[in-house]
């Protein structure tokens, strides 16, 4: 460092100021004074930090290697978007939502501080009423915990109930993100085959502590679980002291037939945790979902939500509560059900008309996608077809990507949440072309 | 069920319709036909569900007993609110925020589908620039992962690095929620005493894998960690192959003295994960924070965020990005710094003037609270004083509630984030009255 007198002159400040500054730097260890020689900047790094430091850097636990890197295709736009599991964001009632959300960002709104981990009281009540009316699920406001979507609901439940090494059963094929989550928690995953009636309850291994299942609308295949199978599953959980996560992710959109009862209504022993999502009925980017838990888990689930991230953003919760209470949610669902019904019908007709020689459609009348099994192509061949389709501007998914341990199915998943009715024909025609050699 | 002919007449529908309905009920197991006798509703529950079911209900893991129930006082309003850790929600720039957030809820905005787990690219970049300029932290956009506040950042880091049974060191006294989170993950908590220079690095037990620390502004006591101690901590982590979580939760609000360097800038071996929050600079109810991780952890942390809850709400992230880029964030911080500086000064003067016989204030010039140690009262006596104060409309916290294992300190924490300057005098006068026997 320059001599104090020189620096004082250069900066036009008093020498006392410079001396005070040097003293402070010395006091804090940034500089040292060498008698008769001057003030020197300390060489802090790496000499002092790294005296006998190891050069190895931090490593994630090995368990994270089992969580595959995210496919970039999840976020890349596509000309014809048939990816399943996303609603039509163009038809979201933005104006109403802006108005309701804006009301919560005012000085007189209550959302200034931290909120209750279990959620906004008005939203918990509105959810309980909604699923009671729409799904016949039994819930009071205090049974509901608001989460950041289904994924966090599964996380909280698994953390509250299970320890590393415990066994969890999932559907095979089945929805991948919860399976990856459960694996990352060190749980042992038992993939259970499904048939046309749902998960094969008889082959769930003894000692399984938790079953994750989507009875209202199997993902990705589409069928609903038969009543017999649902009764068998709840009975199995009772006999085995196990828990069931019922993921009811999109059954608001049913186009024919009678809605099936949630497992939760068959559960007389508090074994079923019902999980719902606003990702399909509203927008996934809101990250809003909920769980309905048996009373015995309520305190622990609240604690789990609290330690995980305190609570879900308050203003979003408050706006969603008003959206439901004011009837806008029911209206939006009605409107979207008719939009998706038309698309469902168009996709189904097109598949039956033009894909009859290559695909067998699996019957389903719920939700935002259809699955179809390849008549001759292998799973690998379907994967190649999907890659070719993407190059041709058409995004869809191979059934094989949902294999949970068993042999990958050769087939395809066609979502119609995000594609306009007028574009379905051209998109599927392009997809059909990719099947030709 | 009534005979089909009778029901058909009662409902004025054709008998064929009723027969079809009965057949369906029978097919789905809700009813049975007994030959020559009629159709009967099945007794589904509990008889079939509960054939040999156990009556025990689901139980949380024992580990959750260690997470204490949340004190209702966290959410109850108080006439004079001196609780630490909350900003002034009345002074939040609501109009600007409504405008920016409203822009994201439009059909042409990009936030319709799922977002990237690591966060909105614009926000990651804005955060990297902000902490570089404001805190001297070294980060590129790709080092930043957006989280639902500090609490989730700690959760992700712990899940990526540690398994149940691993040892974690925390400050004693120290901020409770991360400690509870770490305990809920089955980690062994080593409480490390702090002195005026911060955590006593020398007593961190061998084998500790992670240290959670708030070097810029100790919570709740207030001092910053000395440079010597910071260098010692980073050196210790290097020698022991351990990780450090640096929680830099409110150092934007510094009223005098020079800002201390983050530990992250002393770290030459990728041992420090820097964690920041918008809960104090913006609103806690937004649930917005971030972490800056060494490169070796990036993929696993993204995967952890993905399996935990996919991503933080997109529109909030996009609005926050614009809020920073447009300079509104820096302006809001400047404004609030001057507001809080005045309150800090008022509280300090009042404590020194009227509490000199009962409290010794711990010097601190950062953040939204001050701590003071009782001169004579015991920790139990201070707890009683705090209870009396609450009855008199004054909410503050006893230091003892932050004990992490060692003897609880007798003292008090006075926050001034949520109380207007004009009300500080009366509130503290009332609090002073509660000290008199």
Largest sheet of chain A: 8 strands, mixed
Shape of chain A, please?
globular
What oligomeric state is this? homodimer
Contiguous runs where pLDDT drops below 50 for at least 5 residues of chain A: 45-55
Helix content of chain A: 25-40%
Q: In angstroms, what separates the terminal alpha carbons of chain A? A: 75 Å
Order of helices and strands of chain A: HHEEHEHHEHEHEEEHEHEEHHHEEHEEEH
Counting DSSP H or I runs of 4 or more residues, the number of helices of chain A is: 14
Strand arrangement, major sheet of chain A = 4-11-10-9-8-5-6-7
Query: Taking Cα atoms only, what radius of gyration of chain A do you get, to the nearest Å?
Result: 28 Å
**Broad structural category of chain A:** alpha/beta
Q: Total number of β-strand segments of chain A?
A: 16
Features of this protein?
eight-stranded mixed sheet, homodimer, alpha/beta, 437 residues
Tell me what the structure shows:
The structure is a homodimer of 437-residue chains. The model of chain A is unreliable at 45-55 (pLDDT under 50). With 437 residues, the first copy, chain A, is an alpha/beta fold. The N and C termini of chain A lie far apart (75 Å). Chain A is built from 14 helices and 16 strands. The first copy, chain A, is globular and about 90 Å long. The interface between A and B is large, with 107 and 107 residues.
